[in-house]
């Protein structure tokens, strides 16, 4: 095999017929040392620091405004109680999406930004637009009808639009990080969890003001226990659409998939608000429909996770064929259970260093597989080929560490 740079669309080739990782020592000691210390994740640039600072500053301003608004409207005590109660559903909702994200974990800074945008940015925009829409309806109809129309027609449209906006921004500006269906679901769920968190504070505290402790408890049961996944389920429809668009070759799919996903989110949201605004049979039908939708949602999430494992295995096979990794490693890397077993093995044989190296090896492999997938779907440039080689070299260095090769 040639040691020359790989042709576009082909995996980086090892230096000869022997497995590439066994030939690693052919390089100079300086090169080996550099690769052993290599972190394939680039360091934050000045632009990233400035953008991060801006996000923090805007979040602090919006959080302060929400604190003043809720404190004035509901009082400090009930606002604090609402905030504590709103935290509890997050302990169930967020772990599900982080579990889904285990094969190729998204950077924490993006996940935190998604949550902050959902909790503060999209919520603030939705409150403004919903209030303006409600005020307009109050001028043309009675108060009860205006409230109903706002909940069923205006709120689903505005809320799903502003939540989905984050997904479009991620897809457009972070295409190298946004890897398709799973990423669309994860970011949609995190944004929606943030939105539901802030909205729940309002609902919990408002119910306490109107109906006392009993109203607070009933609202918590309905929103925090019975239906904590509603907002994530709605926005996941948009996430699926954007995720499909991100991996599609078709121009029509790139346009239609996000639009259809958003339409599904708005429709489901509107139907739920319609059923929740009623009583008796209508509410029971809404709860039954919500339960069926939730079961379907969980089934889809589990399928999506298994699908990502199959994709990782499929697109790592070319590297097994050229000697960069073994077929046994491909099997391990495409199964979350096998990954856990491999980390346990590394810990038993190499301690904490082995665990860290094995985890890094697995993370690099996931990113490599998804990079390889993008190479099949989009034109390959020099930066992509360089990134491929960086990941391969990093995997080789990490393998040497957890295998104890000097």
UniProtKB/TrEMBL annotation:
InterPro entries: PrsW (IPR026898). One of its GO terms (molecular function) is metallopeptidase activity. The keyword Transit peptide does not apply. The chain crosses the membrane at residues 49-70, 76-98, 110-129, 149-173, 185-209, 229-248, 255-275, 281-303. Keywords: Hydrolase, Membrane, Metalloprotease, Protease, Transmembrane, Transmembrane helix. It comes from the Bacteria. This is PrsW family intramembrane metalloprotease. It comes from Janibacter alittae.
């Amino acid at each position: 095999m040639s040691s020359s740079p790989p042709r576009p669309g082909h995996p980086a080739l090892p230096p000869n017929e022997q497995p590439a990782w066994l030939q690693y020592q052919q390089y100079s000691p300086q090169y080996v040392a550099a690769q052993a210390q290599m972190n394939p994740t680039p360091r934050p640039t000045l632009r990233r620091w400035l953008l991060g600072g801006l996000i923090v500053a805007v979040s602090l301003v919006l959080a302060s405004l929400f604190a003043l608004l809720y404190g004035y409207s509901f009082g400090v005590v009930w606002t604090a109680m609402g905030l504590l109660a709103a935290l509890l559903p997050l302990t169930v909702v967020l772990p599900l999406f982080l579990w889904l994200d285990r094969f190729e974990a998204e950077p924490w800074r993006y996940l935190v930004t998604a949550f902050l945008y959902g909790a503060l940015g999209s919520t603030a925009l939705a409150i403004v637009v919903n209030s303006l829409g409600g005020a307009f309806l109050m001028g043309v109809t009675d108060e009860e009808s205006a409230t109903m129309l706002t909940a069923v027609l205006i709120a689903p449209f505005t809320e799903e639009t502003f939540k989905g906006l984050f997904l479009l921004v991620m897809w457009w500006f972070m295409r190298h990080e946004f890897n398709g269906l799973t990423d669309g679901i994860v970011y949609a769920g995190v944004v929606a969890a943030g939105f539901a968190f802030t909205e729940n504070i309002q609902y919990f505290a408002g119910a306490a003001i109107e109906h006392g402790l009993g109203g607070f408890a009933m609202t918590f049961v309905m929103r925090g226990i019975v239906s904590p996944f509603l907002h994530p389920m709605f926005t996941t429809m948009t996430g699926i659409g954007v995720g499909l668009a991100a991996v599609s070759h078709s121009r029509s799919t790139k346009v239609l998939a996000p639009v259809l996903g958003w339409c599904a989110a708005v429709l489901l949201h509107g139907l739920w608000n319609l059923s929740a605004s009623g009583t008796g049979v209508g509410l029971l039908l809404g709860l039954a429909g919500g339960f069926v939708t939730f079961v379907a949602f969980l089934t889809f999430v589990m399928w999506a996770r298994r699908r990502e494992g199959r994709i990782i295995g499929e697109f790592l096979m070319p590297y097994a064929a050229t000697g960069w990794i073994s077929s046994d490693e491909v099997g391990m890397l495409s199964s979350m259970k096998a990954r856990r077993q491999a980390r346990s093995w590394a810990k038993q044989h190499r301690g904490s260093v082995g665990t860290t190296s094995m985890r890094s090896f697995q993370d690099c492999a996931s990113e490599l597989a998804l990079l390889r997938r993008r190479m099949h779907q989009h034109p390959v440039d020099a930066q992509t080929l360089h990134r491929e080689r960086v990941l391969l070299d990093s995997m080789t260095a990490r393998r040497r560490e957890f295998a104890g090769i000097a």
